[in-house]
């Protein structure tokens, strides 16, 4: 604009100009409760220059889905396996009392009803983050002191018991209510630090680890963690936590454990040159499938497990390790691994039972830049996740929305965005069928 000063004016009262800076304009619109689409304009003028922006708002009755966010939640949110409930908490500092006041919030996304449980001081339960929620609305949280606690819709609180010989329980995910299965790990074991755990109707069972570690071909010291499970609780996946390795493992219905895509798992002894001491030392490089702490990396039936295929090679001068990474999806039914080197630097994040894979672009570097969907069997890219949501759920959501989970019936999508969160995965969003009055 020249001159720099400019003005904006809306042609309709349902369009509101809520913020205007030197180079930006923020608009909001009131809900369109009529049965008809409506059109309005915002006219921008700067000196003699003039430009109009046309705004078309569809009828509320035409929308088949609703879009919700949990931006008010303190540490993000979790969604139940069949995508009925979303849960989290808010924390507000009470200056008079000198502590934080915490309130657990559970949303029934079928009717958009919010359950606001009774607030409590952080001296009672110092919540850290939500870790899982059941289809009956029981939400679990990790606490700063290492405990895991569960809140029911009625406000009842249950603290998970320590497991003898394994330590404090740290819940990761829950299966369907019918299965009664929860998975996670314990911290502070007598023989290893982290022990993967499966609970069935509240009764814990320590899961076995692979005979050898991901890198060293020797016994475990730190251990591993169960991260997620299938809807029926029969298939579980987890990660190693030995050194910096996060090798991806899985347990079948009989409890047998294997590395995910173990045919690709290779340990390669090398000698690395230490430039400081001018000597060589022995080390192992590893190719294999690695995982993350997310609890959404498995498809509902347990057929597909998503991860990252990472290879390690020694540089020509033998002083550095060169890493490459690409998405990988493992078919537990057919013992087959699909890798996608054409998506270099990306990671596998999740999958549906019909073989649609969720890929996080640039995720190997730590922060996902976008999520795309592919047909795992053919490798054909389907679309950006926001486009897929529009095509399948009939609603446009912000372009910076990253997809984590698609419900078993493919009616609900769940993910996070980085808008106004300083790069942290805090603000969660969901797209669900529009509640019927």
Describe this structure in words.
This protein is an all-beta fold. The chain is built from 1 helix and 35 strands. The protein has one helix at 385-393, and strands at residues 7-10, 15-20, 25-29, 38-46, 49-57, 65-69, 78-79, 85-94, 99-108, 113-116, 120-121, 127-133, 139-143, 148-151, 157-159, 168-174, 181-187, 194-200, 203-206, 224-229, 236-240, 248-251, 257-259, 266-274, 279-290, 304-314, 321-331, 336-339, 347-351, 356-361, 370-375, 381-384, 401-406, 413-417, 427-433. Strands 7, 8, 9, 10 and 11 form a 5-stranded antiparallel β-sheet that branches. The longest helix has 9 residues, at 385-393. It is globular, with a radius of gyration of 25 Å. Residues 421-425 have low confidence and may be disordered.
Topology diagram in text:
Elements: E1 7-10, E2 15-20, E3 25-29, E4 38-46, E5 49-57, E6 65-69, E7 78-79, E8 85-94, E9 99-108, E10 113-116, E11 120-121, E12 127-133, E13 139-143, E14 148-151, E15 157-159, E16 168-174, E17 181-187, E18 194-200, E19 203-206, E20 224-229, E21 236-240, E22 248-251, E23 257-259, E24 266-274, E25 279-290, E26 304-314, E27 321-331, E28 336-339, E29 347-351, E30 356-361, E31 370-375, E32 381-384, H1 385-393, E33 401-406, E34 413-417, E35 427-433
Antiparallel strand pairs: 1-4, 2-3, 4-5, 6-35, 7-8, 8-9, 9-10, 9-11, 12-13, 13-14, 14-15, 16-17, 17-18, 18-19, 20-21, 21-22, 22-23, 24-25, 25-26, 26-27, 27-28, 29-30, 30-31, 31-32, 33-34, 34-35
């Amino acid at each position: 604009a020249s001159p720099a000063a400019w003005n904006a004016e809306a042609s309709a009262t349902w369009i509101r100009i809520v913020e205007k800076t030197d180079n930006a304009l923020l608009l909001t619109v009131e809900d369109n409760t009529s049965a008809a689409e409506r059109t309005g304009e915002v006219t921008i003028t700067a000196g003699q220059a003039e430009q109009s922006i046309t705004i078309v708002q569809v009828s509320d009755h035409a929308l088949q889905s609703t879009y919700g966010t949990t931006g008010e939640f303190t540490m993000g949110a979790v969604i139940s396996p069949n995508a009925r409930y979303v849960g989290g908490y808010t924390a507000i500092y009470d200056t008079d009392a000198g502590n934080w006041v915490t309130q657990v919030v559970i949303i029934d996304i079928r009717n958009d009803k919010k359950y606001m449980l009774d607030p409590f001081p952080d001296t009672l339960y110092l919540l850290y983050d939500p870790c899982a929620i059941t289809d009956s609305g029981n939400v679990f949280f990790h606490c700063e002191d290492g405990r895991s606690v569960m809140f029911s819709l009625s406000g009842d609180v249950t603290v998970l018991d320590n497991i003898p010989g394994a330590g404090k329980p740290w819940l990761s995910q829950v299966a369907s209510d019918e299965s009664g299965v929860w998975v996670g790990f314990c911290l502070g074991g007598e023989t290893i630090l982290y022990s993967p755990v499966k609970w069935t109707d509240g009764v814990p069972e320590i899961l076995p680890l692979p005979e050898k570690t991901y890198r060293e071909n020797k016994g475990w010291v730190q251990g591993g963690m169960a991260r997620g499970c299938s809807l029926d609780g029969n298939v579980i996946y987890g990660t190693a936590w030995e050194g910096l390795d996060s090798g991806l493992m899985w347990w079948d219905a009989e409890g047998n454990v294997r590395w995910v895509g173990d045919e690709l798992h290779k340990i390669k002894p090398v000698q690395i040159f230490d430039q400081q001491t001018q000597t060589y030392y022995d080390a192992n490089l590893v190719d294999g499938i690695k995982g993350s702490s997310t609890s959404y990396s498995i498809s509902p039936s347990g057929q597909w497990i998503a991860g990252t295929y990472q290879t390690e090679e020694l540089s020509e001068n033998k002083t550095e390790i060169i890493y490459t990474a690409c998405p990988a999806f493992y078919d537990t039914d057919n013992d087959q691994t699909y890798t996608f080197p054409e998506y270099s630097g990306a990671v596998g994040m999740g999958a549906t039972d019909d073989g649609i894979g969720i890929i996080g672009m640039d995720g190997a570097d730590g922060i996902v830049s976008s999520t795309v969907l592919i047909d795992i069997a053919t490798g054909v890219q389907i679309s950006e996740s926001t486009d897929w949501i529009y095509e399948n759920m009939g609603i446009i959501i912000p372009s910076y929305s990253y997809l984590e989970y698609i419900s078993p019936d493919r009616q609900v999508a769940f993910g996070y965005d980085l808008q106004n969160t300083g790069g942290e995965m805090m603000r969660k969003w969901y797209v669900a069928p529009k509640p019927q009055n």
